[in-house]
Design goal:
Blueprint: E1 39-42, E2 51-54, E3 56-64, E4 77-80, E5 88-96, E6 104-113, E7 123-128, E8 149-153, E9 161-165, E10 174-182, E11 188-191, E12 200-206, E13 209-217, E14 220-221, H1 238-246, E15 254-260, H2 274-286, E16 292-301, E17 309-314, H3 329-338, E18 350-354, H4 360-364, H5 369-372, E19 375-382, E20 386-387, H6 389-397, E21 403-407, E22 410-411, E23 416-418, E24 421-422, E25 426-431, H7 436-444, E26 448-451, E27 457-462, E28 465-466, E29 476-477, E30 479-484, E31 494-500, E32 506-510, E33 518-522, E34 526-527, E35 533-540, E36 549-551, E37 554-555
Helix pairs in contact: 1-2
Length: 558
């Protein structure tokens, strides 16, 4: 539904008075049906709640030295003893299933119900490689060998479970055999599966996060940027920007207002400046279950010293003016790392390099580990058609860890289906929820892509780990790439996917069949060599031989 802006709030002059900042009722937009949902589960950096699954007990048996050819698989008890001539070992085997691919934090506990009370009865669980033995065929003479020591339990209470940590052996789905022996000379007895309380294997894991793809814009200017750009009625207050972003013609899921902080409306620089307060309030007002509004500022470092370049800073409780004395890029980096506070408890501050040249920002100098984890994005696309892929590689080659964003850099409503101007470029993020926390978390953890098509999604895993992550120095990487466009009209078909090295050479590529609008491609194993990262880019028919979508890097850990 296309809602006229005048029905939301009258357009204002370039620098509104406090009267102009009064809130009007938020307008509801029925947006849920406007875009197909992209949802999927991937291993990543977002914590999910732990889950458990019990292994299926396949067999259990005791082997007795005194009776080397006898089988005790039908007994209702299991025993361990180290008595000379009467040594007893026990064996159990489980099959584990149901752990989702990409789960992390896997741990396992073996529980045996004791029928003996005693201390100083050390019993050690050990990995057993062989799983071919049978419950009715295992004897002392043919018992499988013990392997890696897993854990030891010394105290046992009749009627209670004795519990061993067997995480070193049980690592996910599969079949696992475990043996137990002891140092105590007497019998320690447990219930078998033929008895009242069968052995239990409990496996705990953290399932992979379930992500959705959301589209938006991280670079926009309202009437508070009054010295250049749009003029009334084409510039608009923040609330008008947010409402226009989420109406049906633009259909964005989130929108970041980043006025230039040196502008008259933002002078004096203060957390209580009326324009700043208004922007944050409008972002909060616009945020609902279908849209997220975010407030930020563009730090326009035009005069140095310490390099020049523009940076969008998002979700701080106050701001800086880059043109004030003593404020340069090193000052900003230090402020972001050590002074700035987020606009919301527990939420991150994130930032992006804007319309960058390959040697801007003092040739990418003054980086620290702390600020590297705040400036996590770079505009690969600016103003719909400006492509900065060379700078994307330059920043990452210099040690920054940035993922791509698309900033429309609209001054006023330019490009927002306003008076014939249309910008289709978007940033896409992989987020667990369409909330302020969810969008910021995706940006913070570099789960982003930039696309010149407003709803083409591009994402991937590398060795099962979500893009934007850092691997632990693998020798090879296998990529699983998904590119999808719900529009199946002329020129929307995906024509090429490439995996790119830091020097812009192509490590692997895939040409989909004709008229492919959804592509799922598993790459061959790619040698890491000395490469510190790789990233994925794509083409479609509309843009011919030019790339039109770029996904976050995967860092190799080198």
């Amino acid at each position: 539904m296309n809602v006229p802006l005048s029905s939301v709030r009258p357009l204002q002059n370039p620098i509104p008075t406090m009267k102009d900042t009064l809130r009007s009722p938020a307008r509801a937009f029925a947006r849920a049906a406007l875009r197909p949902a992209f949802a999927f589960a991937l291993a990543g950096l977002v914590s999910a709640s732990a889950a458990t699954v019990n292994g299926t007990l396949n067999k259990d048996v005791t082997a007795k030295e005194k009776f080397p050819t006898a089988n005790y698989g039908a007994d209702t008890i299991l025993q361990v003893s180290n008595q000379t001539g009467y040594t007893k070992h026990l064996y159990v085997q489980f099959t584990v299933s149901g752990i989702p691919a990409g789960s992390t934090g896997i741990s396992a506990q073996l529980k045996l119900r004791s029928q003996t009370t005693g201390t100083s009865r050390a019993i050690t669980a050990k990995a057993v490689t062989s799983t071919s033995w049978t419950e009715t065929g295992l004897t002392w003479s043919n018992k499988p060998a013990f392997g890696t020591t897993l854990s030891t339990v010394s105290s046992h209470t009749s009627g209670a479970d004795s519990v061993w940590d067997v995480s070193g052996h049980v690592t996910g789905n599969g079949t696992f055999a475990i043996g137990l022996d002891g140092t105590y000379s007497g019998d320690t007895t447990f219930s078998s599966r033929e008895g009242a309380n069968a052995p239990v294997l409990v496996v705990t894991y953290t399932p992979p996060a379930s992500y959705n793809v959301y589209f938006g814009n991280t670079h926009a200017h309202s009437t508070y940027t009054s010295t250049h750009g749009g003029v009334p009625p084409d510039n608009g207050l923040p609330i008008e920007h947010f409402n226009l972003a989420k109406n049906a013609t633009n259909n964005m899921d989130f929108y970041v207002l980043t006025d230039h902080s040196q502008e008259p409306a933002l002078d004096p620089t203060s957390a209580t400046n009326a324009a700043w307060v208004d922007t944050k309030a409008d972002a909060a007002q616009a945020t609902d279950g279908t849209f997220v509004g975010l407030a930020g500022f563009e730090h326009s470092e035009n005069n140095g010293p310490g390099g020049t370049g523009h940076i969008n800073v998002m979700n701080t409780n106050t701001y800086l003016d880059a043109l004030e004395a003593g404020i340069d890029l090193p000052y900003l980096y230090n402020w972001l790392e050590n002074t700035a506070q987020p606009n919301g408890t527990g939420l991150p501050i994130v930032a992006s390099f804007n319309h960058p040249g390959t040697t801007q920002y003092n040739n990418w100098a003054d980086r620290t580990p702390g600020v590297t984890n705040i400036i996590t994005m770079l505009e690969v696309i600016n103003s719909n058609t400006g492509i900065h892929e060379d700078a994307y590689r330059a920043a990452n080659n210099a040690g920054w860890k940035v993922s791509p964003t698309s900033g429309n850099d609209n001054h006023g409503f330019w490009g927002m289906n306003w008076k014939g101007t249309v910008h289709n470029s978007r940033i896409g993020v992989l987020a667990t929820a369409l909330t302020k926390a969810g969008i910021l978390d995706a940006m913070k953890n570099r789960r982003t892509f930039a696309t010149r098509n407003k709803n083409l999604a591009l994402h991937y895993t590398a060795n099962g780990v979500i893009m934007g992550s850092t691997l632990s120095t693998p020798s090879t990487i296998t990529f699983v790439v998904t590119a999808t466009d719900p529009d199946t009209g002329t020129n929307n078909n995906i024509t090429l996917i490439q995996i790119v090295r830091p020097d812009n050479t192509v490590a692997a590529s895939f040409t989909p069949p004709a008229n492919s609008f959804t592509v799922n491609w598993t790459s061959p194993a790619i040698s890491v060599g000395s490469n510190k990262y790789f990233y994925v880019r794509a083409r479609n028919a509309e843009f011919g031989t030019a790339s039109m979508a770029w996904a976050a890097p995967i860092w190799t850990g080198l």
